[in-house]
Amino acid sequence: MQASTSSPAQPGGPSFYAALADWARTDGLVWIYLFKAIAAALLALGIAMKLDLPQPRTAMTTVFIVMQPQSGPVFAKSFYRICGTLVGLVVMLALIGLFAQQPELFIASTALWVGLCTAGAARNRNFRSYGFVLAGYTAALIGIPASQHPDGAFMSAMTRVCEISVGILASGFVSAVVFPRYTGELLRSTVRRRFSSFVDYVSATLGGRIDRSHIEATNARFVADVVGLEANRSMAVFESHDARMRSGRLARLNTEFMSASTRFHALHQLMNRLRADGSAATVEALEPYFHEIAPLFAKAGESVLTAADATHVSKQLDDYRSKLPKRVRATRDALEGRGDANLLDFDTATELFYRFVHEMTEYTATYASLAVDTHAREKWIARYVPKTNLIAAGVAGLRAAVVMALLGAFWIATAWPSGTNLVLNAAATCALASASPQPSRMATQMALGTVLASLVGMVLTFGVFPHIDGFVMLGVVLAPVLAFGVFLTTRPKYVGYGVGYCIFLCFLAGPDNVVQYNPGSYMNDALALVAAMAVSATAFAVFLPPSTPWLRQHLLADLRGGAVQACRARLHGLRNRFESGARDLMFQLSAIAGNDAAQRRDTLRWLFSTLEVGNAALDLRHELATLPEHPQYAAGTAWRVAIHAALKAVSALFERPGDARYRNALAATESAIAASHAVLQGLWKPGAAGAPEHADAPTREERHQLQRIQSHLHFIRTALIDPQSPLAAYAGSEGAPARQPNGANHAS
């Protein structure tokens, strides 16, 4: 037997370099971030000490508040922190000037300001929210200690702003210079991955190679991608000119992706309904078109990934779209001759298919435009519009105000020397934890991290600092204990522990130019910090907790409210607000659901139902708004009144679902379909109820538009009776209504 010539991989062999590269892409990035965070903290501390600022620890604390693995978030947080700090400074100087001699009024006004800022942060839920957080937190951080010495309040506020600014500048410098990781690179990989994933998803779904659970998981991931891409885009503009030059196209890409994914899901759901209804002839006529889509997303048989290659795909889709109407009409004529197909189903499906191809062409063209620095598609006004429940935001602000007021009252009543730390750190905890999906858990973790920081800080302050000399030795001592906390922040399960440990270790044991060795004061401060976080965690758990069913019900009502707005609100800019708002609410609901699969599935079903009906209503209203000026199409005619009644009934159903409203919406939609069918066929006669005095048969172009109106109404009806829809629970025992009559030829 021949001996094997293979040998174990040598240390310098290819496998070693592959393992090293894999480590550099994973754990290596963690160690780089850890090194950068410690370097920025020590740099800020050294500069603040060199400038002889009174509390250099504030500069070091600021580093751990703003530091992030990518440069974009650091610059964005730094920008909004500076803005929030300046606003908080101005407000606090005003409050000190007004209420310096009235501690009760000062605490009450500060609590009110912090509550308003916390509500603003909850309302925005993006990096602008950080400006609100800091406007409230900085007011407490500067004002509460300064209120004890009003005569020196201005200088105290100025030095605190300088310390914060030093921390911000140190973070930005280290993040941009030392092994920089740019959000723009993450954006490019996200856009490329999402395009590839969506193309694969479309091909697999049209080919019947995907089950419902996979569809739900994929759509949930797409929702997270939409929200994440917008967040990263808003941060990347702080990094480079290149990112700013592509910002409009990235916003457009996100909007077009939402439209394409919504159109495709609506088409897929309709085809599932047709198959379930046994519409074999209609499905058979449509299948060849679906099989033609997948090859269009390839170039020379290979999947297209890069923006440069997407130009070819965009041209293929555009050519295919231009030939589609004529082919659909030919298929429709052949199907009409068979007599065993519901033509209205075919018309509705082909309309959705044409719109999907159109949206996909636009999406691909925008993706292809990213390959060049400047492009006409950059001129895009519509932006992602987040949606937040006003009641939830108000509750967050009220909770923060109540916590601060209670602790402030306790401080005034007891005259506790560390009461200032108790109140201002309650404000900080409420502000920082309110952005978390589980704020009570976050505040609890921060409290436990602070307990550990208190013990480590005591050892440093009283056991180590007296025995060292010079900044170099100080850095050697601080680096390993801070590195432990930074490492915790890189682990999702332990973020709260790491945040509490890093920030409050700096707060307690961060050295000042004049170090105070006072064990009693140290222990009082540590106790105040832990007590502030414990009270905040209790408030989050007891006072209208964000994870309780009440918030989920309000957010679900807001999600359904998107369909209500689609039926009623002013059309200008409505589609973009509708699409982005629905996904933003879905993202919030998924965070609340956590690992509850049943809740996540129910939320997805409501999302799909809202998007399907809402988009159909928007398409319907757009067609009605662009009808030609003719008495037969006037708003007061019977068929227009019937459509208006259908939209009103559908919006009432989504506003407050119920059995009676479901039956009313279904009946109104069927009446509207019948009325539009009558107009389409030119069946109105003079003297008929609601008919114009001289009814004319529609022209060819008008017929095309009326056919689309009928298709949108029919799709709304199919969405209402879909057994997979959450609205099916309100169908009662009536079962599916009778099939609608065949429609006229549909112009795609």
UniProtKB/TrEMBL annotation:
It is a multi-pass membrane protein. It comes from the Bacteria. GO terms for cellular component: plasma membrane. Pfam families: FUSC (PF04632). Signal peptide: none annotated. The chain crosses the membrane at residues 30-51, 79-99, 105-122, 129-146, 166-184, 390-412, 471-488, 495-514, 526-544. GO terms for molecular function: transmembrane transporter activity. InterPro entries: PHBA_efflux_AaeB/fusaric-R (IPR006726). Keywords: Cell membrane, Membrane, Transmembrane, Transmembrane helix. This is Uncharacterized membrane protein YccC. The lineage of its organism: Bacteria, Pseudomonadati, Pseudomonadota, Betaproteobacteria, Burkholderiales. PANTHER family: BLR3852 PROTEIN, P-HYDROXYBENZOIC ACID EFFLUX PUMP SUBUNIT-RELATED. It is found in: Cell membrane.
